[in-house]
C-alpha cells in the first residue's frame, strides 16, 4: 500500500476493510474546503441548466451523501463552525453564492442548521427531472449511507466501484452535456498522479463534459504537480480557483483548490466575485490568498 499523505484529515478509528482506505468525511463536513467545492459545484450545475437538454453529473468519490453535524464525528473537530456556519451567518452573500446557500437551507428546518448536504445530496437537490446522477463509492459505511438516502431515487445510479476505473468505464453517458466531479481524500501518494491520468482518459471518451477536480493545499508538492500536469493535458477552457484560509506555513489543510476544464461561459465572472468574498469571511485574520484565473482560453 502506498504511504499516506500528511493531510489534516483525522483518520477513522474504525477498522479498515481489506484494501480500503480509512478516510471518513464526517470529520470535516461543512469545512472551508466543502464551502469552496460545493458553492462552485452549484454554480456549474446552474450554468449547465441554462439549456433545457438533460445533463448527467458523475461523482467519483461520493462519500455518504449527507451529514448530521450533531453526530459524534462532525462534533469532534467542529470544522463546520469555521466553514459553512460563517457563510450562513454572513449578512451580505453575493449572488454567486445564493444557489449553494439555498441548497443547504433546503435540508434544514427554518431557523435551524443541523444537516449538511454532501456533493451527492447537493447535486440531486439542484437537478431537474430529466437530469441524472452517477455515484461511485467503495467505503462500506459511506456506501450504505448512499443506498439509504438515494436507493429509491430513479435518477440516481449508485456503483460499488473504484471511482477512477468506474468513471472512465461509464463514459460517455447518453447525455451530451454534464459534469464530472473528482474529489478523493488524497490519502495515497500516487493519488495526485492518478487523478490527472483519470481525467486524461475520461476526456478522450467524453470531450463535452465539464471536469472538476478538487485538491488540498498542504505541506506536500502534490498540488503543484497536479496543476502542472493538468496544464500539459491542454484541456479546453481550463480554469483554476484556490482558497487558502491560513498562513502558507500552517500545518494541515490550509486551503484547497479546483481545476475546472470546459468551464461554462460567464462562470469565470461569477468565480471572480465569489472567491474574494469567501476569503474575506473564511480566512483566519486575513491570512492566505484567493485565486480565480484562466490557465487556457481555447
Show the helix and strand layout:
Elements: H1 32-48, E1 55-59, E2 66-68, H2 72-77, H3 84-89, H4 98-105, E3 115-117, H5 119-126, E4 132-137, H6 140-150, E5 156-160, H7 163-170, E6 177-182, H8 191-205, E7 210-217, H9 222-232, E8 239-244, E9 255-261, H10 267-282, E10 289-294
Parallel strand pairs: 1-4, 1-6, 4-5, 6-7
Antiparallel strand pairs: 2-3, 7-9, 8-9, 8-10
Helix pairs in contact: 1-5, 1-10, 7-8, 8-9
Report the CATH architecture: 3-Layer(aba) Sandwich
Main structural class: alpha/beta
CATH class: Alpha Beta
Count of distinct strands: 10
CATH topology grouping = Rossmann fold
Report, as a whole number of angstroms, the end-to-end distance. Answer: 39 Å
Inertia-based shape: globular
Mean pLDDT: 90
Secondary-structure element order, as H and E?
HEEHHHEHEHEHEHEHEEHE
Question: How many helices in DSSP terms?
Answer: 10
* Helix content bin: 25-40%
Could you walk me through the main structural features you see in this protein, from its secondary elements to its overall organization?
This protein has 298 residues and is α/β, with parallel strands linked by helices. The protein has one domain (26-294): Rossmann fold (3-Layer(aba) Sandwich). It is 36% helix and 18% strand. It has helices spanning 32-48, 72-77, 84-89, 98-105, 119-126, 140-150, 163-170, 191-205, 222-232, 267-282, and strands at residues 55-59, 66-68, 115-117, 132-137, 156-160, 177-182, 210-217, 239-244, 255-261, 289-294. The strands form 2 sheets. Strands 5-4-1-6-7-9-8-10 form an 8-stranded mixed sheet, sandwiched between helices. Strand 4, helix 6 (140-150) and strand 5 form a beta-alpha-beta unit. The longest helix is centred in the first third of the chain and has 17 residues, at 32-48. The protein is globular and about 45 Å long. The N and C termini lie far apart (39 Å). The model is unreliable at 1-22 (pLDDT under 50).
Amino acid at each position: 500500500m502506498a504511504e499516506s499523505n500528511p493531510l489534516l484529515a483525522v483518520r477513522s478509528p474504525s477498522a479498515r476493510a481489506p484494501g480500503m482506505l480509512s478516510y471518513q468525511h464526517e470529520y470535516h463536513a461543512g469545512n472551508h474546503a466543502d464551502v469552496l467545492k460545493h458553492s462552485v459545484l452549484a454554480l456549474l450545475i446552474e450554468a449547465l441548466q441554462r439549456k433545457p437538454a438533460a445533463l448527467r453529473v458523475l461523482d467519483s468519490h461520493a462519500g455518504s451523501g449527507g451529514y448530521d453535524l450533531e453526530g459524534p464525528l462532525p462534533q469532534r473537530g467542529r470544522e463546520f463552525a469555521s466553514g459553512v456556519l460563517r457563510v450562513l451567518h454572513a449578512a451580505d452573500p453575493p449572488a454567486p453564492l445564493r444557489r449553494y446557500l439555498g441548497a443547504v437551507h433546503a435540508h434544514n428546518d427554518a431557523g435551524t442548521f443541523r444537516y449538511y448536504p454532501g456533493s451527492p445530496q447537493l447535486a440531486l437537490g439542484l437537478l431537474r427531472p430529466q437530469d441524472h446522477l452517477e455515484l461511485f463509492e467503495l467505503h462500506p459505511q459511506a456506501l450504505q449511507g448512499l443506498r439509504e438516502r438515494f436507493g429509491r431515487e430513479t435518477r440516481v445510479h449508485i456503483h460499488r466501484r473504484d471511482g477512477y476505473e468506474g468513471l472512465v468505464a461509464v463514459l460517455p453517458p447518453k447525455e451530451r452535456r454534464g459534469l464530472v466531479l473528482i474529489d478523493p481524500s488524497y490519502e495515497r501518494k500516487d493519488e495526485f498522479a492518478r487523478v490527472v491520468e483519470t481525467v486524461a482518459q475520461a476526456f478522450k471518451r467524453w470531450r463535452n463534459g465539464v471536469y472538476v477536480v478538487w485538491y488540498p493545499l498542504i505541506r506536500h508538492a502534490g498540488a503543484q504537480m497536479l496543476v502542472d500536469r493538468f496544464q500539459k493535458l491542454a484541456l479546453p477552457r481550463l480554469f483554476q480557483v484556490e482558497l487558502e484560509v491560513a498562513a502558507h506555513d500552517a500545518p494541515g489543510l490550509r486551503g484547497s483548490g479546483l481545476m475546472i476544464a470546459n468551464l461554462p461561459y460567464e462562470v469565470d465572472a461569477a468565480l471572480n466575485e465569489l472567491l474574494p468574498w469567501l476569503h474575506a469571511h473564511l480566512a483566519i485574520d486575513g491570512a492566505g490568498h484567493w485565486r480565480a484565473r484562466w490557465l487556457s482560453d481555447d
